[in-house]
Amino acid sequence: MATATAQTTDTPPQRELQRRMLRQMLLIRRFEEKAAEAYALGKIGGFCHLYIGQEAVAVGSLSALRDDDYVISSYREHGQALARGVPANALMAELFGKATGCSKGKGGSMHLFDAGRRFMGGHGIVGGHIPLAAGLGFAIRYQGGDQVCICYFGEAAVNIGAFHETLNMASVYKLPVLFVCENNRYGMGTAFERVAAVTDVVEHACSYDMAAELVNGMDVLAVYEATQRAAERARQGGRPTLLEVRTYRFMGHSMSDPLHGVYRTKEEVEEQRKRDPISQLAGRLKEEGVLDEAGLDALDAEARAEAEEAVRFADQSPDPDPAELTTHVLAD
Amino acid sequence: MATLTYRDALNQALREEMQRDPTVFLMGEEVGVYQGAYKVSRGLLEEFGPMRIVDTPIAELGFAGIGVGAAMGGLRPVIEFMTWNFAVLALDQIVNSAAKIMYESGGQIPIPIVFRGPNGAALQLAAQHSQAWDSWLSHIPGLKVVAPATPADAKGLLKAAIRDNNPVIVLEGEMLYNLKGEVPEGEHVVPIGRADVKRPGRDVTFVCHSKSVAVALKAAEQLAEREGISAEVLDLRSLRPLDEEAIVGSVTRTNRAVVIEEGWPHAGIGAQVVDIIQREAFDQLDAPVLRVTQADVPMPYNKQLERLAKPSPERVVAAARRVLYLD
After folding, report:
1. pLDDT in the model for residue A1
2. Which residues of A touch B141 (CB under 8 A)?
3. What angle do CA A309, A82, A6 make, to 5 degrees?
4. Residues of B identified as active-site
5. pLDDT digits over B13-29, tens only?
6. Which of A36, A154, A173, B40 has its C-alpha lying 20 to 30 A from B311's C-alpha?
């Protein structure tokens, strides 16, 4: 891994930032656990892709960005939405398909939107949103802004044509886009090395004359710092960056898929769980005296309470009115 | 009123809308330095500069998606496809992104974008370069689709498309670009969703759009001259939404209809028009509605075969005679 671990835990603002990051990662973990329960109870339908194991990627990267930057993601986007500050209630309600959901119950797990927070979706076709990110970057450049657009996708999207067309154009047009490849090693049940000739995603950047960095996705501070560097590059010179963030999903591809079996072993998953990004950050903050066991428990209790409240809110929210079937097909 | 070609009418619409609204930009292959593969964007790079007239690599999926993203970011992109044949590569962005984001976001993110370019067959370009996508594109909720047949409608519909807050597909025609006609100057906006009677008549309605309007007009002329039959030519202009009222109104007057399109027959635009007529004007019909379409084959290269494949005035005349029970 190319990125050194951050060395900056000794000032109050940085301590506060790291506490906040831990709190957000815990919220994502507890939210996703609740989503899994609700799915098993039939309260969430369709496809539901959990973010457990990958929390450091969303939290580290979004902690490094501004509120006026754009965020766009694939269908595994609960984590980014929470890290962006979309209320857990509105997110859980959307998973439940309720009228109070962030997409009014019309999008579901794969199509979470919050335009006010510049969270531009949840998109369901692998790689299909990557050009949209460049378009948002194009709009920023056109309007003369210094924002950036951050775009999350899995390593399997790298085999899609849209990825290559977009990286080329983002580089040619000098667009302020951060392409974040969350390499969790498996596209559903297919190991990346079985279907990719080049398995270091970061290598693709040289085809498009783009800056790139390989990042340890289990280290939230490493993700934070790499994102800061990429954002700076985008804001100053309008240059895009490809970040390959190596991570691991502790759950199956979606709620309908097995955790392990034909494509990866139980032992591998257990081994990876030892690198849990939350325990790593918690351990480190305890070691450095930023947080004691009681402090950690308190943060976790807050996260659990917020996730539970989200389930209660979603449960009690109404379904969309039948008249909503035909609204929002077209804008006025 | 000035006489302009269809090409220059489109050019005028683009220029006027870009002057009017700084968020409008044009993106596509060869639109800038080369002045447009069909010269629709002639002179625009010089007037508006490379930030607003954007040349792209040959990457339809990529630049269509960049257009949609730019629309999400507050701009009004006009995406030019060198032809709609190539836009098939971009269908994921048109169908899954442009048409759905408004709905799946619960109304938070409108996508004001225009996708335009020539559609349907030209001359001897063979199967991959000679197809009409009218039916495919009109199938999708969340899109609007227009297909102007005259220079005046080309200008007015493109202006309306650019001002619309939704994705609008503009189907042009390579064979129409040199067509001349009178075009109102300045503010000439044709509302999307309204058909136009291009020739009034009493005995039979020809429902048509885009290039098939000229075919229908020629057939109507022949029928009038040779047989004293009065055909009404109804130009749909918009394929989604369809002007049901105009279709039903015309058939109610004439009691007979022939639907003409340059697409394939199976699940074509004509099938939708016939559905409307049988539902809304069943009691007014004096004969089954007939359709004239492209032959149900990939377009052949050979000139004679190609002519056989396309809708022609002769085939329209023959269909009209059948619905009038003259044959």
Report:
1. 39
2. 329
3. 125
4. 60, 129
5. 999 999 999 999 999 99
6. B40
